[in-house]
Amino acid sequence: MQSLGALRHFDYNMPGAYAYEQAIETIRRLGLGMVAVKQQYRRAVFNIVARNQDDHVKNISFLMNRSGQWRLAPAYDVAYAYNPSGDWTGQHQMSLAGKRDSFERDDLLRFATTAGLKRRMAGAIIDEVTSAVAEWPRFAAEAGVPPADIRRISKAHRLELKSVS
Fold this sequence. Notes:
Elements: E1 2-3, H1 4-8, H2 20-29, H3 33-50, E2 61-64, E3 70-72, H4 105-115, H5 119-134, H6 136-142, H7 147-156
Antiparallel strand pairs: 1-2, 2-3
Helix pairs in contact: 2-3, 3-4, 3-5, 4-5, 6-7
């Protein structure tokens, strides 16, 4: 297993120095195809919507099999990480469409274009992810998360990125 940071010699201690677009570029360089591109797009959208702002270059990884073929590693370290006054989680560690905060739906769609995804597919992914994240309060309550934490975290989710249709 090698992280995006290791493969590209990126220093994860440099917030904002690297972008999700570079992750897509790496997927292309490794010849992983559109299935991996689409999966990485979905993961980026999730991180933006659910406020996993600890989304640095050591949290995207690749696995090589014995034949030397690469694939995108399963997602890991995927958790709510947002502290508006925090040095590390006040903004996203990686940029998307040139931004680390204040995202709009158009930013996610612009990133999709860069990734080579059709706008309709990208919109569907954004809507699927925001719908899933919107269910978080129910899952959190079932898991016994204190109501105050459920409210605080729910308020931070970027559910407004879902289409208004």
